[in-house]
């Protein structure tokens, strides 16, 4: 009997409010399970707890006697952190003279006749302008000021910032200065360093810069969560010495990637992408090849349509932040079943913050 036929497989949708699990046992039967994504009194992680519930394993026991082949997960952790602005404290390092470039943006006005223009909050809290310059032919015009950069980065680190997005003017063709700054930031102690020529190695400073900032802003949060799940799964290494189960994460483009390679920039539509892939499979089995999907969770609502093939986009905007990376063409709004209702004195406003799973809506009776 092949290993895949004698092991468990788990497919998990880890949302901001609920976590849903479908498991296939060694005998081929399917099991579904649902639990709160956060319930600190009962368990530290919903995905691992859901696996324990299905397997009937106690809270402190290991999975070593159970053979798990793979765990595949989609998550809205990145989506919700972006919508609610709950990512890591981030500094933007950019070529001197361009400190306001990402704030100014590309002059696109979604509401062309609006007189009161309200720009979205930026993800970075500090801008570090560095004296340097390379032209579009990769020629160095101004040497990199390492001493000035060192002082500014050290000041940011001392202020508690631990994520840095390095976005230099023509780094897409001349990445040497970004690499030097990355080595400098690493020596100071920054654990998260995102380089624009690696995150989005293309022209156009604004799109490349915004995508790099998103990567720096979300990656620490995602890495902590992935490490937590991987650590829990390591205890499921079978006693016979077989490999530990592999953890795969859904990306915004609808494809799976190994957990260790999962990046913040690819996480923003991880959960919603899994939703449309599942909806299409369900619709096909029912004989439909043209559908509109409506996926309301606790924090966000996602809408997409399918007419015979998946629609993908390379540039999109989520919560006012421009992203330039391949992803499903999904429209996401910060309004879900657990969104908090505000009154600003003139009108009601829904979200973007959510009651989540802890404490959750008032009906959860958790204060």
- Which word captures the global form? globular
Tell me the Rg in angstroms: 22 Å
Strand content: 25-35%
Q: Helicity, in percent?
A: 25-40%
**Poorly predicted regions:** none
How can the largest sheet be summarized?
Answer: 6 strands, mixed
- How far is the N terminus from the C terminus? 52 Å
Order of helices and strands: EEEHEHEHEEEHEHEHHEEHEEEEEEE
- Helix/strand/pairing class, anyone? alpha/beta
Please count the beta strands (DSSP E, at least 2 residues each): 19
What's the overall average pLDDT, rounded?
88
Biggest β-sheet: strands ordered side by side in the sheet: 3-2-1-4-11-12
SS summary, helix count: 8
Keywords:
367 residues; alpha/beta; 8 helices; 19 strands; 29% strand; globular
Description:
Helix content is 27%, strand content 29%. It is globular and about 65 Å long. The strands form 6 sheets. Strands 3-2-1-4-11-12 form a 6-stranded mixed sheet. Strands 6-5-9-10 form a 4-stranded parallel sheet, with helices on both faces. The longest helix has 30 residues, at 205-234. It has helices spanning 46-55, 77-84, 101-104, 146-158, 176-188, 196-199, 205-234, 270-285, and strands at 8-14, 18-24, 30-36, 68-75, 90-95, 126-130, 133-134, 140-142, 163-167, 192-195, 246-250, 256-258, 290-296, 301-307, 312-318, 321-328, 331-333, 339-343, 348-354. By secondary structure, the chain is α/β, with parallel strands linked by helices. The mean pLDDT is 88. Strand 13 and strand 14 form a beta hairpin. It contains 8 helices and 19 strands.
């Amino acid at each position: 009997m092949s290993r895949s036929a004698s092991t468990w497989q788990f497919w998990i949708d880890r949302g901001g409010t609920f976590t849903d699990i479908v498991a296939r046992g060694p005998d081929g039967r399917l099991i579904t399970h649902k639990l709160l994504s956060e319930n600190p009194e009962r368990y530290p992680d919903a995905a691992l707890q859901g696996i324990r519930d299905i397997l009937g394993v106690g809270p402190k026991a290991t999975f070593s006697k159970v053979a798990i082949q793979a765990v595949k997960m989609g998550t809205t952790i990145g989506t919700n952190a972006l919508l609610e602005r709950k990512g890591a404290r981030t500094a933007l390092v950019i070529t001197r003279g361009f400190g306001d470039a990402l704030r100014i943006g590309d002059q696109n006005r979604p509401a062309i006749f609006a007189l009161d223009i309200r720009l979205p909050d930026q993800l970075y809290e500090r801008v570090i302008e560095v004296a340097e310059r390379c032209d579009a032919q990769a020629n160095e015009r101004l040497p990199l000021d390492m001493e000035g950069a060192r002082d500014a980065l050290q000041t940011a680190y001392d202020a508690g910032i631990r994520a840095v997005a390095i976005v230099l003017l023509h780094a897409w063709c001349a990445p040497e200065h970004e690499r030097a700054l990355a080595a400098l930031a690493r020596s100071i102690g920054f654990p998260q360093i995102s380089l624009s020529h690696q995150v989005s190695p293309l022209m156009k400073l604004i799109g490349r810069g915004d995508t790099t900032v998103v990567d720096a802003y979300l990656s620490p949060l995602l890495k902590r969560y992935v490490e937590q799940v991987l650590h829990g799964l390591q205890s499921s290494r079978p006693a016979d010495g077989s490999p530990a189960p592999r953890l795969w994460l859904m990306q915004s483009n609808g494809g799976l990637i190994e957990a260790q390679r999962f990046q913040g920039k690819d996480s923003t539509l991880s959960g919603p992408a899994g939703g449309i892939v599942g909806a299409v499979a369900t619709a096909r089995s029912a004989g439909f090849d043209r559908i509109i999907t409506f996926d309301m969770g606790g924090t966000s609502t996602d809408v997409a349509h399918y007419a015979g093939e998946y629609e993908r986009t390379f540039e999109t905007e989520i919560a006012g932040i421009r992203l330039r990376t391949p992803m499903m063409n999904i429209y996401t709004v910060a309004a879900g079943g657990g969104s908090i209702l505000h009154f600003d004195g003139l009108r009601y406003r829904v979200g973007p913050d959510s009651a989540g799973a802890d404490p959750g809506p008032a009906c959860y009776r958790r204060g």
